[in-house]
Amino acid sequence: MEAWRLQVPGCQNTSLPRVPFSLRPTLGLCYAWLCALLWLLGKPPGAVFVAICARQGDSSCRFLSVSDLFDRVIQHSDRLHSLSTALYEKNFLPNGNELGKWTGKCHTSRMLTPNGKEYVQKIPREELTHLILRLLQAWKEPLSHFDQNIGHHQELSSDSLSKAKQISNMVHELKTGMEKVTEKMQSMGIISNSLNGMGSSEAAGLSISNEANLMSDYEFIHCFRRDSNKVQSYLKILKCRIWPGNSC
């Protein structure tokens, strides 16, 4: 009996011991799993792969590293902030009366959301991740309400109405993506599981608060544009702290 040569990541050109032919498939499968596990354990953070499928049960799934998945979340947040900026600048620039009436407070103002990069970098990873999720949760319900009621603006173009709907959908998608990234980072030990019990009810309370619905459209879009910029910045800082690279 001759040796059987097996190639798997991390165990290249490895020869199995001489065994009966009937045992080779079972032994080969076990050995492949062992080598794959060792290969994954030897990779840097972000090397574990996540299946991305168009729909559940889809056979044409793509596999992304957690680092690449994080990049996608950041790109999504970039597009979201660009959309909100375009909608704000085209339709909701304030007039003198609006500026005089507004107190400058958003419905998320009670949340501690630091502005300075140096201060943000000092926040523990878990707390920064939690803050991003809280901000996204706090906007889900108000944006859905805004999308349903923005039709009363007869002067808005179909393109602007489409942007408003896109923003509402994208916040939901961004939160779902961030939750997936968080789950994978926890399973990899990059961040602790302490997020599981942190203030979900507080975030939910903020998201259904009447404060957002009582704001004028200008105030609403101004506040969302501000918070989407914060989410964008926090995501980039968090990613650079975990996976330092050329873009940091």
UniProtKB/TrEMBL annotation:
Q: Name one GO cellular component term.
A: extracellular space
Keyword field: Hormone, Membrane, Secreted, Transmembrane, Transmembrane helix
Which Gene3D superfamilies does the record match to this protein?
1.20.1250.10
Where found in the cell? Answer: Secreted
Q: What is its main location?
A: secreted
Q: Which residues cross the membrane?
A: 21-41
What biological processes does GO assign it? positive regulation of receptor signaling pathway via JAK-STAT; response to nutrient levels
Q: Which Pfam families match?
A: Hormone_1
A molecular function GO annotation: hormone activity
| Family annotation (InterPro entries) | 4_helix_cytokine-like_core, Somatotropin/Prolactin, Somatotropin_CS
Q: What is this protein called?
A: Prolactin 2
What organism does the UniProt record list as the source?
Answer: Terrapene triunguis (Three-toed box turtle)
Which gene produces this protein? Answer: LOC112101905
